[in-house]
């Protein structure tokens, strides 16, 4: 084979490859000879089928395999000889001249084709010791543990009927049937039967629960309530609904004693064990927030350390993924770019920057991980896959099989594990300072308005962030694309 480089521009490489007819003929003949002892053809004894006859019967299909194998071998050789790391799979362009292709298929002519490659940029890994980040530490006070115990007790209260004529009060449970309508027309999902409503729990749309105060069993009433402006169903958001309601029962909560017997309801030996488990769970949540904020700082610092050309295909791929999600979110919410105080053009420009950051950080983390020989074990992947499957009760086996049979989907499980291990590797060398903070400080937004819940990720563009903040909604998170280059 003959390989000639025809383009070396930035991260793009192009080569012209010529596969001589004599090489094609030699490969084809060798493959056909190897088939003699394997095929069974009527009229011929095993191993005695003439190669010429095999060529007439199987020649084209075997040559197709020969060409595919030669193309794969050539691609590997180009990558190895040039010392390249590919951003995506090579793009092969065969000649448009059908006569040339037909001649190659018969091994009667050379086959010339082009290979287009997009390579990953080369850059040096900076010294981590110069990275300075702060880990915020919040010590959970005893009062918060007590509040958590009280909430647990409230959530597990038993309720008993108050009796005939008893009026519902705040804290009571009212069992109701209702049918909701807007402008006289019933809406989907607006009806319920034997629905328990805990007055004061804020489990229903604003105003619904309060209008049940004073209700008695058997009473029929009309409840008027308005769906929040940011309600999940766009067709209901901000609209006033009328609920024809029948009160079927009024129940009062029983007293709950927080003791060893109460703890045993949750599989604990005693109250002390329940407090320990609850305290660890609360601390774990705050530690996760601290970790996200720490990771945000680290990624921001890394992003500022590196400047290099980004593979256009990875940029396009990443931006397209982000933009599809943006369009889906806007369609579901019923909002427009004007609602977000921006334009489509401005939003695209902002999301291009986000895509660039994600690709850059993904490449940096992948390179750091490779240099540090960071490995993700099969056990770690299996553990994460089990957790993913648990998110779909009743469908665990289907989820498990899906990921196991789809390498690309499984890579999406592996990538976050790899990323976290690389972050840990960097933190071992970086200058990490611990700082005691209050709960409010830990949960506060950073100075750019990015909430700590998205600390390890990119947020919406600035104008969209402001709009989301007003609505009280949580912005979507974006993470570096380490799986694109691992």
Automatic annotation (TrEMBL):
<dbReference type="GO" id="GO:0015031">
    <property type="term" value="P:protein transport"/>
</dbReference>
<dbReference type="InterPro" id="IPR005215">
    <property type="entry name" value="Trig_fac"/>
</dbReference>
<dbReference type="InterPro" id="IPR027304">
    <property type="entry name" value="Trigger_fact/SurA_dom_sf"/>
</dbReference>
<dbReference type="InterPro" id="IPR001179">
    <property type="entry name" value="PPIase_FKBP_dom"/>
</dbReference>
<dbReference type="GO" id="GO:0051083">
    <property type="term" value="P:'de novo' cotranslational protein folding"/>
</dbReference>
<feature type="domain" description="PPIase FKBP-type">
    <location>
        <begin position="171"/>
        <end position="256"/>
    </location>
</feature>
<keyword id="KW-0131">Cell cycle</keyword>
<dbReference type="InterPro" id="IPR037041">
    <property type="entry name" value="Trigger_fac_C_sf"/>
</dbReference>
<feature type="region of interest" description="Disordered">
    <location>
        <begin position="441"/>
        <end position="486"/>
    </location>
</feature>
<dbReference type="InterPro" id="IPR036611">
    <property type="entry name" value="Trigger_fac_ribosome-bd_sf"/>
</dbReference>
<dbReference type="GO" id="GO:0005737">
    <property type="term" value="C:cytoplasm"/>
</dbReference>
<protein>
    <recommendedName>
        <fullName>Trigger factor</fullName>
        <ecNumber>5.2.1.8</ecNumber>
    </recommendedName>
</protein>
<comment type="similarity">
    <text>Belongs to the FKBP-type PPIase family. Tig subfamily.</text>
</comment>
<keyword id="KW-0143">Chaperone</keyword>
<comment type="function">
    <text>Involved in protein export. Acts as a chaperone by maintaining the newly synthesized protein in an open conformation. Functions as a peptidyl-prolyl cis-trans isomerase.</text>
</comment>
<dbReference type="GO" id="GO:0003755">
    <property type="term" value="F:peptidyl-prolyl cis-trans isomerase activity"/>
</dbReference>
<keyword id="KW-0132">Cell division</keyword>
<keyword id="KW-0697">Rotamase</keyword>
<dbReference type="InterPro" id="IPR046357">
    <property type="entry name" value="PPIase_dom_sf"/>
</dbReference>
<dbReference type="GO" id="GO:0043022">
    <property type="term" value="F:ribosome binding"/>
</dbReference>
<dbReference type="Pfam" id="PF00254">
    <property type="entry name" value="FKBP_C"/>
</dbReference>
<dbReference type="Pfam" id="PF05698">
    <property type="entry name" value="Trigger_C"/>
</dbReference>
<keyword id="KW-0963">Cytoplasm</keyword>
<dbReference type="GO" id="GO:0044183">
    <property type="term" value="F:protein folding chaperone"/>
</dbReference>
<keyword id="KW-0413">Isomerase</keyword>
<dbReference type="InterPro" id="IPR008881">
    <property type="entry name" value="Trigger_fac_ribosome-bd_bac"/>
</dbReference>
<dbReference type="GO" id="GO:0043335">
    <property type="term" value="P:protein unfolding"/>
</dbReference>
<dbReference type="GO" id="GO:0051301">
    <property type="term" value="P:cell division"/>
</dbReference>
<dbReference type="Pfam" id="PF05697">
    <property type="entry name" value="Trigger_N"/>
</dbReference>
<dbReference type="InterPro" id="IPR008880">
    <property type="entry name" value="Trigger_fac_C"/>
</dbReference>
